[in-house]
Structure formats: structure tokens, C-alpha cells
Amino acid sequence: MDPIAIPNGCRLPAEWEPHEATWIAWPHYGADWPGKFAAIPWVFGEVVRHLHRHERVRILVENERLEQRARRLLSQAGVDLAAVEFHRVATNRSWLRDSGPMFIRRCGSGPGRVGVLDWKFNGWARYSNWKRDDAVPGAIARLLGMKCRQSKMEPGGRRIVLEGGGIDVNGRGTLVTTEECLLGSVQARNPGVSRQEMEEIFRCWLGVSKVLWLGRGIAGDDTHGHVDDIARFVNPTTLAVSVESNPRDANYEALRENRRRLAKATDQDGRPLRVVELPMPQPLFFSGRRLPASYANFYIANRTVLVPTFNDPNDRLALSRLGRLFPGRSVVGIHSVDLAWGFGTLHCMTLQQPLAG
User: Fold this and answer.
1) Is it the case that residue 270 has pLDDT exceeding 60?
2) I need a labelling partner for 15 at 20 to 30 A (CA). Which of 21, 22, 292, 305 fits?
3) End-to-end distance of the chain based on CA atoms, in angstroms?
4) What three-state secondary structure class fits 321?
5) Distance between CA 194 and CA 257 in Å, rounded?
6) Is 181 a catalytic residue?
7) How many Å apart are CA 161 and CA 139, to the nearest integer?
8) What percentage of the chain reaches a pLDDT higher than 90?
9) What is the mean pLDDT of residues 6-30?
10) Which fold has domain 2-354?
11) Is there a contact between 48 and 71 (Cβ–Cβ < 8 Å)?
């Protein structure tokens, strides 16, 4: 199968490049946080409180009632609602990183420089309620008046499944992902698609010339291997990588193998990458289930970096290391113990829209 390519010169920008806005989907699906849902809108409110100082925040809500509840909460949290937009778009869940569009940038300047790329979303090949989420990229493109292209393969025009949390890029041509997520037989996104075909998909659709393949993700991750819990680009030449110090922990071997692979990795120009280690928090459990708690699930906004924290001794160490990696941004911890019960944290719930200029 061959991918149908986007126009030459398009690429997926890195997260630290200037944003026009951050998109979120206001939480409403209580089954994602059974027994804890009442706390979740306040976590979203705290995220918006920090983001709206530096960029617009665009919020998806499915009806007027939910919008009014969100407005009241945000006002109580100290948010200036003039910096926030609400848009009526129905969703199944609030993990917009995975269900929302990828904004691609065309080289050059002028109108139409940023467009919407619409991958198929199928609930991480795990859940049955995903059809509203799959329609979100097209809805956002219409709201913005942007061109929207669906990622497909020939022959037959089969849509390609890819979630934003399954990849990370340096904006210069290098992408990092995991074999567990994109090549495994469990929760298989694109059955029958090989490693080489996936690399061609990344080249054609995202302007990627180098793919770094890690092995497995972390314990408790219901996406089965998303890379945004284990390895993140923080600049074009540096990766922050999760490591586990306890040999008895379920994550120890998988994270050690990923670290070993990156020790030999090079970028799109064949240059070695700098790798900075991030600790893992102590294992986090709720109702007998291990949760995917990781400091690597941070979100890079225009002038701040939001980092999940877990009331853990390693919170301070993770914030300190990320602070050194982002000297031009404030690094802020967001309490995420409750949020993680939904099997995602800050990066999973946010989606950057790059500046068009």
C-alpha cells in the first residue's frame, strides 16, 4: 500500500514553535473517571488558567449547558474569559491530543500556510465509543476555515489510524514512536502495515525523514505504547526520556531498553542526539489498577511548560530538570493524581495550533 502524500514542503511543527492557540475538549464523560469526575473540571480549569495568559484557549463543548458550567468554573478559577473561545462540537472523550487534528505547516508565508490533517481515530483500537471523536478534525477545520486532508493509502483509499500521543517530532525531520503502539498485534491501529510502510506514511504526510523506533511504553497505559509518556523532544537536538531506577518495577526493563536505543540514535542529519533522563514517580494505583503516571506527559505552551505532578518525591526533581531544559519558559506543576485515573494527563488533553504567520 502506498500513502497519498500531502503537497511537498509541508511538515508537522514541533510543539515549542509559536502557537496561535491551545485546544481542549471540556470533560463530560464521567465513565473515564469513575468516582473522581467531580475533581476533573477543576484540573482543566487550572490548565486553562495558566495557558490563557500566553495564548488563546479554544474549548469544545457539546451543548449550552456544558458551556455555562465551564464558564462559571473558569471565572471562579480566575480566568479572563475574553481569552477563551467556546465552540459547539460533540466529543466522546476529552483526550484531544489523540482525536483532534494535526496542524501541518507549508513552507513560505501568507494565507493558507497552516492546514488540518485528519487521521482516522478508532478509540485506540480498544473502545467502541469513538465516532464523535473521529469527526472532530473536520469540525475544527470548518471552524477555522482551513483546508482539511484525510490521510489515506492506495489502493482503495484506506484511512490511516494515528494518534497525536503516539508520535513526537523535532520539527526538522525526526520523529520518535514505539513499536508497541504502531507495529504490535495488540490494539493494532493499521493491521498489515509494515515498519517500512509506516515510515513512508510519516515521510509523505508529516515531512519526516528519520524515524526513531522505541520498544514499549509504560505500565497502565491503555493506549498500548504511546510515546508521550516515555520520550519527548524538548528542542531539535534533545530528548527528555523517562527512566525507572527500581529494578523490581514493571517499567524498569522497557524503559532501560528505550534508553539504550536512544544512546545510539541520530537525528535527520546523522548527528547524535542529546538525551536527558526524567525520573518516574512511584507507582500510582487507584481501585486496584496501575495508572500511567509519567512526567514526560508535559505540554509545551508559548511561555510555559505544564508538567503533571503526583504528590511524589520525584516531582521536584522532574520540575528542576525540565526547568533547565526550557530556560525561556516557566515550568509549572499541575496536580494530576485524579486526572491520571482517566489514563491520561496534560499532554493527552491539550492540542496546539501553530501560529499561521
Assistant:
1) yes
2) 292
3) 36
4) helix
5) 22
6) no
7) 18
8) 92
9) 92
10) L-arginine/glycine Amidinotransferase; Chain A (3.75.10)
11) no
Amino acid at 32: D
Confidence at residue 6, expressed as pLDDT on a 0 to 100 scale: 66
Give the pLDDT of residue 4: 65
Give percent of the chain with pLDDT exceeding 70: 96
Residues 6+ apart with CB under 8 A from 314: 279, 280, 281, 282, 295
Specify whether the CB–CB gap between 108 and 115 falls below 8 A.
no
- Upstream peptide bond of 279 is cis (omega within 30 degrees of 0): no
Q: What is the pLDDT of residue 108?
A: 55
Residue entry with cell 489514563: 343
Amino acid making up residue 60? L
Report angle CA 253, 259, 264 to the nearest 5 degrees: 135
Q: What does the alpha-carbon distance between residue 257 and residue 278 come to, in Å, rounded to a whole number?
A: 15
Count, residues in the chain: 357
The predicted pLDDT at position 154 comes to 73
Please pick, among 10, 181, 204, 348, the residue that the annotation labels catalytic.
348
Nearest to residue 297, comparing CAs of 349, 228, 219?
A: 228
Give the DSSP letter string of 140-197.
HHHHHT--EEE-EEETTTEEPB--GGG-EE-SSSEEEEEHHHHT-STT-SSTT--HHH
Q: Using CA atoms, how far apart are residues 352 and 349, in angstroms rounded to an integer?
A: 10
Q: What is the pLDDT of residue 90?
A: 97
d(C-alpha 135, C-alpha 64), whole Å: 20
CA distance 57 to 84: 5
The 3-state DSSP class for residue 355 equals: coil
Global pTM reads 0.96
Determine phi and psi for 134, rounding to 5 degrees. -65, -25
